[in-house]
Amino acid sequence: MKKLIFSILLLFASTFSYSSLKSEFKVIESKNTLDSENLLLDINTATEGELLKSGISKSYVEKILEYRNITGGYKKLNEMTRISGIGKKTYEKLKLKFKEPKDVELKKFNINKVDDKTLTYYGFSKKEIRDIRKSQEKNKIRNNLEVKNIISKKKYEELKDYIEY
Question: Which pLDDT score, from 0 to 100, does residue 25 have?
Answer without folding.
Answer: 52
